[in-house]
Amino acid sequence: MAAAAELQAKYQKLAQEYSKLRAQNQVLKKGVVDEQANSASLKEQLKMKDQSLRKLQQEMDSLTFRNQQLAKRVELLQDELALSETRGKKSKKGGESSSQLSQEQKSVFNEDLQKKIEENERLHILFFEADEQHKRLEAELRSRLDVLETDAAQHQAVVDSLTRKYTDTIEKLQHDKAKLEIKSQTLEREAKDCRLRTEECQQQLKNLQATLGSRLEESLSIINEKVPFNDTRSNQYNALNVPVHNRRYQLKLRDLAGQALAFVQDLVTALLNFHTYTEQKVQIFPVDSATDTISPLNQKFSQYLHENASYVRPLEEGMLHLFESITEDTVTVLETAVKLKAFAEHLSSYLCFLRKILPYQLKSLEEECESSLCTAALRARNMELHRDMKKLTAVFEKLHVYISLLALPSTKPESGLRTNYSFVFTNIATSLHGFHVILEDISKHYSQKATLEQEVPTATQKLITTNDCILSSVVALTNAVGKIASFFSNNLDHFTASLSYGPKGGTEFISPLSAECMLQYKKRAAAYMKSLKKPCSDSVPYEEALANRRVLLSSTESREGLAQQVQQSLEKIAKLEQEKEHWMLEAQLAKIKLEKENQKLKHSLSGHLAESVQERSVLPNAAEQKEESIEKSQREPVKTTSLIGMLTITTDNEKAPDNESREDLIKNHYMARIAELTSHLQLADSKSVHFHAECRALAKRLALAEKSKESLTEELKLASQNISRLQDELMTTKRSYEDQLSMMSDHLCSMNETLTKQREEIDTLKMTSKGNSKKNKSR
Known about the structure:
About 85% of the residues lie in helices and about 0% in strands. It is an all-alpha fold. Strand 1 and strand 2 (about 645-650) form a beta hairpin. Helix 5 packs antiparallel against helix 7, helix 7 (about 340-370) runs antiparallel to helix 8 (about 375-405) and helix 14 runs antiparallel to helix 17.
């Protein structure tokens, strides 16, 4: 396993290096593509420049040829001039016609010369500009050549480093391959051994399956014969069975009930504040009861609002009773939640209160809209509150319907199916969220209304404080309802997990009477289990147990063996004490008999022989045998052999033996024989106990060895699977690395070829530029 972990770490490192090299390869590919594009553009520019240079060279060649022709003609003309001047000096008197012709020729020649000179100047200027452009191009190309050479050197260094890395990785992989081949050979040998072991285990498994099948048939036949009926088939009988007590579920449910009780208490306080502050608002606005009489409608409305505590307080009490009914020892389901019915009744009474005050509240808002102090914006806010109050009563009606449906299984289980109650819980969650949305709208509209009422000229400080109190109570109400909605939606799965304790396939609820019987049976079972509980003995400390574990497993004298030895030794001691008491009684009886016999022997006479015989017949048969042996011993030597031992007595007819010494001898012989036999017996018992303890320890060792064998076979199977998987991965990685190396080598070869081509092209460009520069210099 350690080798596999090392291989995995190596493969991970190789994969990381491969990813890095792949990223570098992509960067190099991009650089090579850019360089190829730049080289192509440079080639095109060089072609264009070559063409322009060739054109200029042709023009230069033609110009030089023309210049040479013109120079020759100028020389000829100068020679002709010189000849003509010499002739003119000789023949000063030449004809006017020849002088006029020579002047005309001179003017023509002068004009041609001026034109040629101007053209020569223009060509010199063009040549100078072309030479400057050529020098600039040569400098740019040289700078680009230097950059390309540096890039090529860097690329070559990168390529060399990559080749070194790849060679190192190939060597490492070859080394790992050799190691893995050796490991694979060893693992193949182990696999062969494991196959043999698996065959043996399969044979054992077949035998076990056969034995278990026979046992199963026997147990099924016993169940069919002994069990009269299965009470789980019918819902009525199964309802009386006590379910498995889920303490964690009960504690979670009690915790949830405590949270719900806290939320309901916050809701009750918010509702009380809202109704009381609404009563104060009705008596203040639009007409203050302290200065003027309010309308009879508002009087009736305030009278009803004054009774809100008698309807709101029972909600908290009902939730408190429901929380107290959920304990750790009970089974809390819908059939046993009897207090949920009382909470539903309190909610229905509060709903009746809301229905009773709803028309008065709506009429009060309408009356407020009709007053002269009410503006258009305030009237719009009042109408929005008019609609919100209707929605609030409708939401309470929905909640009452759903909670009364939840209370039905504890009173009328036949009126609903168990499968429908998950939808009831989801509808309660949705209605609570709707309740929260309505209260948010009410708080928003009340805040807008309060700001508008403060702008009324007749607004008093009492009205402002009352509006602030109403807003705070509405905000508290929205917060409480939001907490309840989030709490119910978060724990919806827990509520719908176990609706009833009946069979899983059943669709109907269990009757409340069977639920009560089940709870009584549960209490009886709990009382019986408590009566069976006994205080546990002090356990061994954990550190001491850990220290003695190996000793207890490997030692031949384990704690159980020692306890059995102690028990057996105690039993032996008790048996030996019983035998001791028995032998003490026998010794006392023997002493009594000896005393009687001594007295009879002392006082016996020859005439009283018959009487002594009669008295001896009354004694036990053992005593008669002893007397007969004594009489015989008087006459002749006797040699007695028995399981007790061997005793030889020689007597003389003339001399009678001493009875007391003979009895002491017999007694001492018996006592020595008993001691010897008891020592042999104790030795045999101790050896048997020792062998028994060794056998138990060997059996435990054998069981532990079998367990370790099973665990090792499983580990070996996993190791073989891992080895095969690693071999496959190694082969795939090797192939991938070889493919990548081949691709990289091909790519490097192509890059080298392109670089060599670029170098050759640059060298040719240098040669051509040098030749052009030499030609220009020569010109």
